[in-house]
Amino acid sequence: MHRGSCLCGGVTFTVSGDLPPIQVCHCGQCRRAQGTPFVTNIPLDESQVDWLSGISLIQRYESSPGKYRCFCKTCGSPLFSQRSSLPGVLRLRVGTLQGHVKSKVGIHIHDASRANWWTPQDDAHAPRHDENGPAA
pLDDT tens digits for 50-104? Predict the structure, then answer.
């Protein structure tokens, strides 16, 4: 089991079950939403996440048709995203998990859009796709 929270600790949760491989997205929209060169996601079934506190603090923003970015409205921490086309799936932001994360990077997507000021230094073994990869 993994525990996670937003920066202020208002939203807390646990994740049960095995974690699938981490998906790294390099698209411009993810960079702007995170303020970083990429975003790291773990796609989870909603049933794997147990919200312990702060569910009323979660704000949803539709960043493009059918894509919702969800964050803590107190501290602004990005928590997860959801797509209408993938009902029941949360794309949890890996940085919200505490302690050792039992998963590794499995894929890089939108690599052609990668920030020109950042040079990848990890996961040479993880496949890179210029657009969406399989199951992204």
Answer: 999 999 999 999 999 999 999 999 999 999 999 999 999 999 999 999 999 999 9
Contact 26, 114 (CB under 8 A): yes
Distance CA 136, CA 119 (A): 22
CA separation, residue 73 to residues 17, 60, 65 (Å): 28, 9, 21
Structure tokens at 35: 């303020």
The strand pairing partners of 78, in sequence order, are 71
Neighbours of 104 (CB within 10 A): 12
Token pair in block for residue 17: 């079950």
**CB-based burial, 42-71: b 16+ in 10 Å, e otherwise:** bbbeeebbeeeebeebbeeeeeeeebebbb
**Phi then psi for 89, rounded to 5 degrees?**
-110, 130
Fold for domain 2-113? 2.170.150
